[in-house]
Amino acid sequence: MSHSLTPTQKAEFERDGYLSALPVFGLKEVQELRQSFENFEQRVGRERSLVQRTDLHLLERWAWQAVTDPRIVQPVCSLLGPDVLLWSTNWFIKEPRDGKFVSLHQDANYWGLLPHDVVTAWVALSDAGPQTGPMQFLPGSHRGQLFDQTNTYDKTNLLSRGQTIVADLDLSHAALAPLKAGEMSLHHVRTIHGSRPNETDDRRIGMVLRYCATHVRQTKAPDTAVLVAGSDTYHHFELLPAPVTDDGEAERARHADAVQRMGKIIMQD
Ligand SMILES: O=C(O)CCC(=O)C(=O)O
After folding, report:
1. Ligand 1 atom with the shortest distance to the CA of 92
2. Whether the CB of 208 sits within 6 Å of ligand 1
3. What are phi and psi of 88, to 5 degrees?
4. 102, 198, 205, 266: residue to mutate for ligand 1 pocket, most atoms within 8 A of CB
């Protein structure tokens, strides 16, 4: 069965810089995924999980399966072409009423990836309805300029440095992208986006997957990725294999190295 986007969906993404909401996982599947993730959090402890959950696909087989699932990868290939890498896995989690938010920013400003053939799949592992602080996009902003960003280091901002666009943006057309558990949105690396706090009694759990075409380069430092579709004739990234054993020794070493490199790349201006 094909999960490719239709021409209308592709045109919408090209016009708006995002697409929402696309069904991916059934209810039982998404409950199992959430359980697997929360088992991981319990096993390593909440504090350590904040670091270790980055690139979890290198450590746990269920996470690898999720990031290579054709229901996510095929729609991404519709936008990026047949040869696609997974650059990283992140988790954007807002605990019930914890006040955490994400300031308006553009990922292209600090990821070091060029050209900007990079798409994020934001997969909801819990309901991400309007009261949970779902993603908010500025439609069409991916076709405009890259704005200057300041680092606020605000503790309630979920971004690593509190990256925030300094300009006075016209938000009159900003669009919320609420999702049900098991759905995803896709957004372009230049699209302006952010999100407000979670005002509900459940966690808002986003499994956030960054994909790029194989011709994309990392301009900041040598970097790693995973080939999820087609072939890689460019060799711009060190390609990493699937975990064979959950939390195995080799897996832990590869994961630790990838997370350390990612941390440096993200924190570097
Ligand atoms: O989950 C959020 O609210 C923000 C996520 C985000 O900034 C991103 O996926 O690039």
Report:
1. 1
2. yes
3. -160, 160
4. 102
Closest C-alpha residue for ligand 1 atom 3: 195
pTM (2 d.p.): 0.97
Of 119, 122, 138, 198, best ligand 1 pocket probe by most atoms within 8 Å of the beta carbon: 122
Lookup: tokens for 54: 């980055």
Do residues 231 and 90 touch, judged by C-beta distance below 8 A? no
The string over 6-28, giving b where at least 16 C-beta atoms fall within 10 Å of a residue's C-beta and e elsewhere, is: eeebeebbeebbbbbbbebbeee
pLDDT tens for each residue of 218-266: 999 999 999 999 999 999 999 999 999 999 999 999 999 999 999 999 9
Summarize pLDDT for 148-182 with one digit per residue, the tens. 999 999 999 999 999 999 999 999 999 999 999 99
User: Does the Cβ of 164 fall within 6 Å of ligand 1?
Assistant: no
Q: Is the CB of 92 under 6 A from ligand 1?
A: yes
Regarding the beta carbon of 205 and ligand 1, being less than 6 Å apart is answered no
Confidence grade of residue 268 (pLDDT, cut at 50, 70, 90): confident
The structural domains of the chain, ordered by start, are 8-267 (2.60.120.620)
pLDDT for position 269 = 76
Cβ of 135 less than 6 Å from ligand 1: yes
Among protein residues, the one with the nearest Cα to ligand 1's atom 1 is 92
Closest by CA to 98, choosing from 205, 207, 208, 185, is 205
* Residues 70, 3 contacting (CB under 8 angstroms): yes
